[in-house]
Each structure stands twice: as C-alpha cells, then as structure tokens.
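Look over this one:
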Amino acid sequence: MQFDVSQSESKKAAIPHEIFLFNLIGNHILIFIASLGMFLSFPYPLYLVPVISVSCLLYTLWRAKRSLRVDPWFALCHWQIASRRAKVFIGMLSLLGTVSFLGWLGYAYLGMMKEAIYAFIVGIGLLPTMMTMLVLIIMESDGLYQARQCRVSAKWVLDKFPREGMS
C-alpha cells in the first residue's frame, strides 16, 4: 500500500533495511569470505563477523523497540518489519549453533565419524541457514525498495500498527 510520506520519513524508513542488508551481504558474505581467505596466516578478522552480526542484530531489535516511541509511523513500520526478519535470522543462527554444538558432542563424546558430523552440521544447520539468508536478502532488498517508494506491503504491520486517521 502506498502512503503519502515526506522524503525524510522515507529515508528514515530505509535505514533498518540498509543495516540488515549490510549484515547479510557485507558482513556474512563479503567480510566472511575475505577473512576466510587469510585465516591460516591471520585468523583475527574472521572473529569480526559474529561481533558485527550480533551488533547489527541487537541494534535492530533495540531500535525497533525505540521506534515505537520516537519515530514517525512510516519509519516505525519498517523498523518492525526489519525486527521480525532479524528475529528469524537469529533463530536460524541459533539452529546452526545448536547443531554445531551437538555435532561436536557427537564427535568428542560419542565417537561419531568426522564425515558424518560434517554431513549432519551442513545438512541440518548450514544449508537451512544459508537458504534463509538468501531469502532474507531478497525480502530486505524489497523492503528497502518499498521504503524508498513510500510503501508498506506487510499486512501484519498495518494491522498491528494502524496509521492514525485510517481505519
């Protein structure tokens, strides 16, 4: 649904999508691949990826709560959309961490084969996380486009946060 909002409100509404896209593309893809290439000689940049990711995700969640009090309605809606998607990504990262931990336990204490553990972690943890990441990149790119076009298409956010003067 298209709304009549100012250019400054539209720019404010684009910020959560830009942060989330930076985290997904810039951090989890570009920084991760670049730091993975030099991991054997200099492993420290790889440790930045989870630090940056947690910072971006926590900021998005915190700022979405704060937007309920300080932001105009249109920006508030886009912060809530980004927050919901951040929660999905946190859930997938938690799944990956849990599966990795279970794999380590299976290898260290149950004597499972290393290859079986790799298949377990990749099949149940990494693959769903990467697929979710690709879907979230597409959804956030669309969210950024909608913010710039003064649109909100997420029906749940319109129902939960109705605009004043609209029924």
Observations:
- The first helix runs from residue 7 to 37.
- The mean pLDDT is 95.
- DSSP finds five helices and no strands in the chain.
- The chain has one domain: 7-160.
